[in-house]
Structures are given as structure tokens and as C-alpha cells.
Hints:
The complex is a heterotrimer.
Chain A: E1 3-4, E2 10-16, E3 19-25, H1 31-38, E4 57-60, E5 63-66, E6 79-81, H2 94-101, H3 111-124, H4 130-137, H5 148-161
Helix pairs in contact in A: 2-5
Chain B: H1 22-26, E1 43-49, E2 55-61, H2 63-66, E3 71-75, H3 77-83, E4 104-105, E5 111-117, H4 120-127, E6 131-136, H5 143-147, E7 162-170, H6 173-179, E8 182-190, E9 202-208, E10 213-218, H7 225-233, E11 241-244, H8 260-273, E12 277-280, H9 283-289, E13 295-304, E14 310-320, H10 331-334, E15 349-356, H11 371-389, H12 393-400, E16 409-410, E17 416-417, H13 422-433, H14 435-447, E18 451-465, H15 476-482, E19 490-496, E20 502-506, H16 515-527, E21 534-537, H17 558-585, E22 592-595, E23 598-601, E24 604-610, H18 611-620, E25 634-639, E26 656-670, E27 677-687, H19 694-713, E28 745-749, H20 766-783, H21 794-801, H22 810-813, E29 825-834, H23 838-846, H24 848-854, E30 858-863, E31 868-877, E32 880-894, E33 898-907, E34 910-922, E35 928-939, H25 941-945, H26 950-970, H27 981-993
Parallel strand pairs in B: 1-12, 10-11, 14-15, 20-21, 27-28
Antiparallel strand pairs in B: 1-5, 2-4, 2-6, 3-5, 7-15, 8-13, 9-10, 9-12, 13-14, 16-17, 18-26, 19-20, 19-25, 22-23, 23-24, 26-27, 29-35, 30-31, 31-32, 32-33, 33-34, 34-35
Chain C: E1 7-10, H1 14-24, E2 28-31, H2 37-42, E3 50-53, E4 63-66, E5 69-73, H3 78-83, H4 87-90, H5 92-97, H6 104-107, H7 112-118, H8 124-132, E6 135-139, E7 144-148, H9 149-152, E8 153-155, E9 158-159, E10 166-173, E11 180-187, E12 194-203, E13 206-212, E14 219-223, H10 229-240, H11 250-268
Parallel strand pairs in C: 1-3, 2-3
Antiparallel strand pairs in C: 4-5, 5-10, 6-7, 6-10, 8-9, 11-12, 12-13, 13-14
Amino acid sequence: MKRLDAGRSHPVTFRLNGRERTGHAEPRLLLSDFLRHDMGLTGTHVGCEHGVCGACTVLIDGHACRACLTLAVQVDGRDVETVENLAEDGVLNDLQQAFRRHHALQCGFCTAGILMSCTDFLARNPRPREADVRDMLTGHLCRCTGYTGIVRAIVEVAEQRSGSTTEENEHV
Amino acid sequence: MATATQESTTSALGERQTRLEDDALLRGLGQYADDLATTPGTLQAAVLRSPHAHARLVALDAGEALAMPGVHAVLTGADVQRWAAPLPVGVRQPMEHWCLAVDRVRYVGEPVAVVVADSRYLAEDALDAIRADYEVLDAVVATEAAVAGDAPVLHEAVGSNVVNDRSFSYGEPDRAFREAARHVSLKIDYPRNSCTPIECYVVVARYDPADGGYDVAANFQGPFALHSVMARALKVSGAGLRLRTPPDSGGSFGIKQGVLSYVVLMALAARKAGAPVKWVEDRLEHLQAASSATNRVTTIEAAVAEDGRIQGLRYDQLDDCGAYLRAPEPATFYRMHGTLTGAYAVRNLAVRNRVVLTNKTPSGLNRGFGGPQVYFALERLVQHVAVELGLDPLTVILRNLIPADAFPYRAPAGSLLDSGNYHAAVELARTGGGLQELEERRAAARAAGRYYGIGFAAVVEPSISNMGYITTAMTPEERRRAGPKNGAVSTATLTVDPLGSVSVQIASVPQGQGHRTAAAQVVADVLGVPREAVSVHVALDTGKDAWSIASGNYSSRFAGAVAGAVHKAATRARDRLARIAAAQMGADPGDLVFADGRIHDRNDPARSLSFHRAAGAVHWSPGLLPEDEPGGLRETAFWSPPELAAPDDDDRINSSLCYGFVFDYCGVDIDPVTGRVTLDRYVTTHDAGRLLNPDLVDGQIRGGFAQAVGAALYEELAYGDDGSFRSGTLADYLIPTAAEVPEPVILHQETPSPFTPLGAKGVGEGNNMSTPVCIANAVADALGQRDIRLPLTPSRVREMIGITESEPPAAHAAPSIEAPAGGSTLRATGVVELEADADTVYHAMLDPGVLSRIIPGCHALEQDGDNAYRADVTVGVGLIKARFEARVSLTDLDPPHALRLNGAGSSAVGTAEGGAAVRLSPREGGGTQLAYDYQAAVTGKVASVGARMLQGASRVVVDQIFARLRQEVDGPGASAGDRAWGRRFRAWLLRLLGRGGAP
Amino acid sequence: MKPAPFDYVRATTRDEVLTLLAEGSEQVRVLAGGQSLMAVLNMRFAQPGLLVDITAVEELRRIERRGDTLVVGAAVRQAELLAWPGLAETVPLVARALPWVGHYQTRNRGTIGGSLVHADPSAELPLCLATLGGSVVLESRRRRRTVPADDFFQGVLTTAREPDEVLTEVHLPVARPGSRFGFREVAMRHGDFALVALAAEVRGDEAWLGVGGVADRPVVRRMKPGAALADDLDALAWELGGEDDGHASARYRRQLVRELGYTLLTETAP
Lengths: 172, 999, 270
């Protein structure tokens, strides 16, 4: 049992997007600030800092969580994944491509959080109904799109991943 | 002059295409304001804000804050008065709006001081250490109350809360009303709401002591007319404020116009700190103090013939702009002024516009700007006309719509409606959206006893604002003195570099609308190059880039105006390249076709030149160019439409260049028990002229629709009667989620605008104007109601359906007095049964020792007069705790029968003030019955965040006081189970009915 | 919106938690899922000296059936309980209500114990615990006590927990054969705190109705299906009283108790 003093920074060693990283954090430092300002990963956005908007959602040990309601020191020894980890070898993954295809984003500020929620959600719910998708999405606020494109993109990726047929709909 | 034709086989314009923006945004590589690299040594700011709606700022002591580690500076009103000027306003009134309170605060959340520290965490620590003393003044919140003669006046120098009052008459309204068969009127109270982008305000400011200039990066959205406002407030020339916007923005919808006062504030904070300063607004700050649409009270009246034809309209509008008129207000009124007759061929119009100030956050741009307020009144009226005349609402609409052969149509107040075919759009909607089916569903639902209604809304959607419309707030004489203002200049710069790459700089400051994609499509189309070969830069730098006062992102001006300027710049570049290529190819420039990255001779398909080769020549071999070709390739186009004239002497104003048409209808099903409104189907039909990219257009429509569903059903920035703010978090201000927003049926008609280069009109604000009233009309239809107030929450709708309650059983009458609706006063009564006699109880309460023990969390109690004390109190309810500096007193002493226990305290989370009237009476069989009746008011952060639980929380605290008193006088053995009246009753019921160990 | 400074301990045993609470009591806050506490800290509505994170205490992360009781460790995440295979058969009411608790993302982190200790009068889990007649275990260096839901919830955000105590276990009575359960919630939006939440258990001619969101705590009453039900619901509605707030009136809440309560009890009865 180690007591981390308020006024000092303490080492935080964790896996971030598959690599071991170490940073330093006061106990009160929020994970959202730690990722953005100390780890340099500004893809995770901050929209409310009270857990409602969902913009800061990241994966902690594979589970979608609010980074603004998590302390940096809490992820010591854990595995954290952010939006920067989704594209592989520079190629957008299927979810990202579907978001682009379906105009699932406009300003893009809420997008990273939604992508991370979907990553967790689709892993645990391979064949969701549209109602399930919308239910999961109630944990995110998007002010631009009206959600139509987001829902379509997720449903399509779920169908593709689970092997059911979907029309190819690539424009570009 | 010879021009090349554009015969691209792969014309990108008008196609559904994915967006160029998305690749970076989907990878988390966007460059939003908070992501930009900052200069080493940049400090972080936090803002101390007023907990009061109206108060004199008596004293401000930042000494303790300045002594804290990591704190560099505290900016106060005195600094601001020394270095800056009040923000200029468009209405000549002696009111001063400083970017920081100087001696008075006028709304909850008004900035009072800025702390600059090494980190935001340390800056917020220091906020808690600043002591601000206020003398609270009466606040005025209700718009109509502010107009009354006895209302507290916000700006004493103005002498009234009405800062602008203008009346207008067009045609012969009096005659129309005199002669009309019927008059139909409604009064509308349109609430405050905001489109609340998910990214809040961000400002990074630097002061250069060498040249006295400021360099500020902010997610400001324009209009850049406000750059002049900021520069003048900072007392520098235009060049003295270099304002930059980031490449990406996390949404705005008008709201980021309001960052302007924080640009000034943080520029001054940087000056004070002697270092660059960054401020990132948080969500609590944003909701309470950023900006919002105005709320408005409208009395609207129609003179109508029996067949439903509207012969005249009268508006009496009170627009509530909050505590200060912040530029460009009172634009909310005048953006819509020329269009007040909407889509209808009404020739007689009378208008009275009063701009009202109240103790609320200053208003500003918000998607739909002015439209939601106007159309809510107008379209509710049209529906009501139908009800009054026993006609179908669609019949009334069709009888009044402007006929197709009337365009361009000059509306009585001055709008020149450029093009349209409204009747055809309605027909498209009727057939394409399945109106008949909805009518059948309504009939079936009603037959089954359900509440089902159909609503309509016909809306003219203005776009590309006339920068001169705001001067309609002035009299013609005032305008003559000030000089005419008009037009709207858009700019675009196109550059072709030595490798033939094309880049475009636009001053449209997009906030997610895909301007880069659309601009690239336009350029690719003109130059015949792949879209991906065109880079579009949208980060604006007033120090380097071409811009003008109309620059920025508002009034849906991109497609109609900015894209046009891009087209113009690209066409100029193409014409130059055609002449250069023609010389090289020995062809006629008029025969050249730009396509597939090459320049072809249409007469000889074998002859062509690559685009980059021709473009390279202007840089690498200027000596070989045609004689009048100067070399280099950069074209800046400015474009301002001549139709946007200044208001004329009869106050007619063409407030916008383009006018799209939106026709909506919907069916709603209302749950008779919960009052929940479900959109069964929503059909929205748009004529936005030529569509540049239908996917982008549909995205705009869906987004606006979702926000409008929020405005109709969920969202309101609520204030208590004392001006306390009640919608402080996103759990209070309710934005619709994916479960609440259905997919609308979207239909398009394309009637090109004759006034824009591409025939396009603005799109994206229409549903913010049409949808709230369309839904309201459907609810009015379903319930047969006349007075509809937004948001249509389940509770409000159910109240309209009707709740018949029996009288409360006598047992409940006493303790359940409810807080007055909308007020922030907490009130409750209770009874405590005590063993001790009245004299003992009475004197116990006067004993400071006892007092210090019964006040929960009392650390120290110090005598401060007769029966008056200063106390240091930590008040806690559950995990919430706050330390208050409190004053406690006992007054109205009537020993041993009655007294009054008063308390007032302030803390970093807000202030609280209240009192309990205590009455002691002997109990049958010995002992005392203590009855209390308390009232309390809280304000500041705790009121804005905890509104849902305040009443219950205050009861917990009061219960604690009397429970402890009971322990004091009756001893520690006194049972807590039946200490309060209500609790005793509950315990009794529990024994009788409850689960205390039942199964 | 950044928290004030505090010390932090990631506890790994229950004993550590009890020691820290005994030493610090008033100044200590237990951090479980943090879905309410962290927001409160960010807003500086609480400024504790020490946060004791209990999410790594394995003893508090178990779900086990002991006889007629399902014992849920305080640090079990809401999503974990929802995914627990036997939930729908063991405590059907909780299985029905859990999807209404917050959102997918907050359930991933939020704990069963944390929601109960927070005692939001509109929250679903306190309502379930009260309706089922469940209890919680509170432990301190001084004692270990089992507190029935009726005694535990004492008002808005207020429970019987003493400052040095930590909630360690939640005891949910296992559904008895023949029992039927119903749950209804009316909220502004999906996932919001309830304007009114209703939970019912019907067994034979016995029925219990729990109401959240109206009074200052969840309230459970025995109801008799039959002719007098409407009158009993009316009496209950008046007893609960309710408050006006920005989202709904007290009258509205009372009316939902009457009408939805009637529907729920009727449709839950066999």
C-alpha cells in the first residue's frame, strides 16, 4: 500500500497503444489531461469533464471508459488504448472507413470517443441490433450529425465483421 | 475574352463524395485549438466568476491567491480599465460592457478576475483563494418584467432596460386590420437555448511589449467584423491584433462568435502576466456564461379573410439579449427583419421591436439566428388561424404562399426572395413524404383514443447576410450620420506552386461543415485536376491572409458566397493557364479543355499538355510566357453581391442574399400517461438552390434537425427568479442522443439562385427554424391546445393533457410545501417533538455553545453582536461538501415561544442565505413541539449544478440542525427515527405496509 | 474543472481500506467506479484529503450466491454484474433495471456499491435494493454491521454509513419461485436519472411497489392488487410528495406513481 502525496508527481507506467510508457502525474491529474498533455496524444478530446459527453472515452483494459473521470495514477500497470491506435500501418481500419463512407462525422470532435466505444462494444456484441447500437451511443453527444451516419457505419461494420452480406458502398 | 470551357468528364461538383477532412480526424490527428503547439513558458488561465445575477462588486482581494505557488498574476477590473476600453456596440447607449466586471456584475458567471498560473490545476486552486465581496442587488429575469416601470435597471446610465425600441410599418397594416373579417393572435414565450458545441472556447494570447500589439489564437468563428470590436476594446489598430484561427474546430453553430470578449480578456491577461496565456473554457463555464440564442416574447396578430388569406401581420417583439448588448446584437432581430412575412404573400406588416436587457448571459449567434424565434410565432399563428377558421392548416399555407411566378419577390420589409417554387415544393413533400398515410394514421390513432397530431411549417431560410442589416436598428437619420453599411465580401486565394500543386486559402473558418471538401471539388472541377491534388487551408491569420468583415462561418454563407469566390479565383487561374498553354501548344485558348490533370485541345485530341507542366512554366520560365503574363500564379478573388444594399429610408432591408425554402410536416404520437412526444415521421423538404455535394447538404440538414429536436423537446437554459442559473451541466441541459433523434425523410428541390456564382444557396439552418414549430404545431393539433411553450417536456405535455388530483389528504398538507416553480427559493416546514420544555429549548438555541454544536460542520463560532455570530462551517450532503464563511443570527425573539434562526454564507461553490421561523408550543402530556418553516436561496455553481437535488439537500441540512438540537435538549438517547413530522409518518407507514423485514 | 489536491492510495486489501478510514475518517473518500465522485471532485464540490481506491481489492470484486442471497462485492462493476450469467434467474429485477443505469460506458466503470453509497434518490440500484428488501454490509475498524435498505437510505445523498465505514457487500435476496418482477422508468432521455422509476414484486396475492425519483429516497410499500389499489396508490403518491424541478413537476411525478404504478402492478401480476 503506497500513499501517493498530493503535491508530488509520481511515476505512472502503463501500456499505451501497445507500448510501455512512463509518465509522471500528481494524484489529481485526470487521465484525459495526462494523455493529451504528457503523452502528446491529442486525439482524445475533452468536452465536459463530468462524464456526460463521451468525447474523452478511451479503452482501459479493453473497456470503454471516460478518461475525464479517471485519474492518471489509476492506469498505472494497466493497458490504455486511444484513437491513435486504430489505424494499422497507416491504413484506416474498417470502422474508421465506414465512418468516412457514411459521413459519420462533421467537426470530428466527438468522433474519437465514439470510435473507442464502438471498438469495445463490437468486440463484446458482434451482432447488435440497431436499437442496441443506439443504446450504446446514448453515452455520447454529437452536435453535428444527428447520429444517422454514425449508426449506419456501426451497423455496417458489425454486419461485415460477422460475415453477413452488405452492399459495397465505397464512393471514392 | 477567351475562356476555356470546363468539360470535365469527372466533374466532382454535385456528386456525393466522402470528405477530405475525415482521414486526419478519424486518426485523432485533428488540429483543434487546444491541440496547437504553444510557445515555451505559456501559462494557463482560470476565470473567477460572479455567483450573483446582480450585485455591486465591493471589494476584490487577490493577495492570498498571488502568494500561492505557481501563480503568476491576477488580472482585475482595474487592469482592464487601465489598458482597455469597453466593447463597442452597434446601438448608441451609455452602457459599458467591459470584458471583466469593473464595479458591478450583471449575470451569474460574469468574469470578475483571471488567475494566471503554471497549470490550470494551480490556477483553479488560486480562484478559491480570491475574496470577492458583493452587495447583492435585485435581479430582473423575466423579459416582460424588465420592461415594467418598477424593474431594477441594469445600466443606470441608460435609465431603462429597453436599449433599443423601433417601430416599422410596411404597406397599410392599419387598414388591413380595420377591414379584415377576422383577427387572430397569439402570445409566444420562446425559451433560451444554445446549440452547445462539444468543444468549448479556447484562447491563446500573447502580448508584444515592443510594438504594443497582441497575437491571439482562438476558435473564433467570425464574423470578422468583430475583429474591429476586439481591436477597439484593446485600444490597438487593426494590425495591432493579429487573430488566428486553428485548422479544425469542434463545432460552433454560431456560439463561437461569443469568444470575442475572452479574446480581449486573455490578451490583457497575457499582458499582465508578461507571458503567453492559454485559457480553455470548461463546460460549466460554457453553459452558464458563453452565449446563447435570445429568448423572446412575441405578440403576433393576423388580419385574415374567411378563406384563410392573411391580409396583414403585426408583430410586437421583446428580444432578451441578456445583461449586455454584445456585438453583433441586436442582430438577432434584424437578420430576419426583411423576411418577417416568411413564405407568404402578405403585403401589410407592422412591427415593434424592443431590445431588452435582463440579468442573464449575453446572447449572440446561434444556428438559425433569429429564425427560430420568428417562425415559432408566425407558423404557430398560421396553424391557429386554421383552427379558428375551421380550415386545414395546409390549406391556409397553400392559400398564402408566394406564387412561383412572383420571383424574384420583394417582401414588404425588403427581402428580395431570389428564387423558388414553394407550391411545387409542398407538392413534392406531400407525395414524397406520404402525407396521406400520416393522415390515415392520425385518424386511426384518434379512433383508438390516442393523442396523435400533424404539424406543418413553411419557412424561408435566409443565407449570406447583408453586413448592413444591423443598421436597421438605427433610425434613417442615425444611419445617414453613421454612413451606409451594406454588402458581404467573400474571399478566396488560389496558389499554384512550382511543382504544379494547387492550394486554396479561404476565410470561411469552417466548424465541421466540410468546406475543404467542397472548395476542393469546386477547384478540381475548374482546373480538371483530381480533388486530392487540391489542398485547402482554412486556418485564418488576419496578419497574412485575405479577409474582410464578412469573413467567417455564419448565415450559411459558404455554398452561396465562399464557394463562389473560390470558383472565381480558380477560373481566373485557369484562364491564365489556358493562355500560357495555348501559346505553348499553338492552339486557341478557347479550345482548351482542362481534364484528367491535363490541358487538351478539343480540336486535336492527340495534343495535350500536363497541368503541372503548364503551371510550372509560370515559375520556371517566365521569359517564355505570353507578353502580358507576369509570371507566378496566385489569384485572390473578392466577391460581394450588389443585391445587398443598405437599408433604405423606409427601413426596407434585403437582409440576406439568398432565400431557400423549407417545408416540413410531421406526425407525433403522445403517450397519454407519460406525456412523451414521439416523432412518428418527420418529413423535411428543402430547396437550397444548386446542391454542391448532396451528402454534405444532408449532413447539415440532419444536424440542424437533431438540434431542433433538442430545442423542441429537451433544451432550455433555465434561470431561477433570482437570476441563479439552473442548467449548469450536461445532465441539466439535455442534448438529444442517438436514442432521441429519429431519421427524417429528406426531400430536395433545386431552384438555382440567380444571384450566386454557382446557383447555390445556404443550407443547414433551415431545420433549426422549421422543426421546433413544426413539432409544436403537431402537439397543438394532437391536444387541441393553443398555448405551446418549448421545450415540450413529458411533464409539461402531461400537464396540458390534464392531471386531476384530489385534495391532498390532511396528513400531507403541512410538510410538503413545494418550491415555487422556476424559483430558486427552497422552502419546507417540519415539526419536531421534544421532551424538554419550551423554556429549555428556547434558551438552548440562544446559547452559543449549543449553537456551535447544532450547526452541522461548525468549526468556529465567534460572537459578532447581540445574538449574531461569524462562523466557519463545512456544510455537507453526501459526498458533497463545501466550506462556508457564514454569519448566523437569532432575531424576532419572543421568549419562549418563537424566534428566527438566520444564516448566510459564501464559499467557492456559491452562496446560500436563509432563515427558519421557529415556533415552540407545549405538547399535551409534557414536552415541546417545535415547528419550523424555513426558506433558503442558493446561488452560484452549487445552484447551477445541483438544481435537481437542492430542495432535498437543504432538507437534509435543516433536519440535521433540529436533530442535533433534540440531542442537546433531550440527551443522546433521543431516537432519530421519529424526529421530524414527515419521518414519523413514514415510519408509521413503514411498520404498517413496508418491507422492514417482510419477506 | 480540475480537482483540488488529494493523496491517493490504491488499496489491495479490505484491511488497508479500514485502516485508512479509521485514521482519516472525515478526510477520506472511498473511490470505487468514480462515475459520480470524480465528477464531483472535478467540480470541486468535494475536497477530500485522501482518496482510497478500492477497485483493486479482490475481496470486494466477487459475485457469489450464499443460500437465498446473492452477495455482490462493493467494487463489482455494473457491467460485470450485468454480464454475470445467472443474473436474470437469480435477481430478475436487477437484470431488468441495470440496463437503465447510466450508459454502456459508465457501467463499464461504475460499481454496484458506489451507486448505493451515493444514494441519488432517482438512481435505479438503490430502488432495486429497497424493493427487494436487500441490505448492505458496512465495515469499519469498530464493527461490521448489516443494514437493511430501509435504514440505509436516509435522504438525498444521505445514508447510514458513518465516516469511518466502507460498504463492502451488497446482499440481494434471490428471487423465490413464483415471484414476478416488473420495472418501469420515465426519464427525460435514455440513460438520464429517473423522473420516476418504479419497481414491483408480485408473489401470489402479495405485492410490493418501490418508487424512485419522487421522495428523497426510494420508498417501498406493500400493495393489495384489487379494488382498493387506485386509492392506495393515490395515498402513496401524496405520501411521497415529490418536488418541482427544471425537468418535471411534483404533480407529474405523483400522477405517474398513480397511473404507471397501477399499470406496472397489474401487468406484473400473473
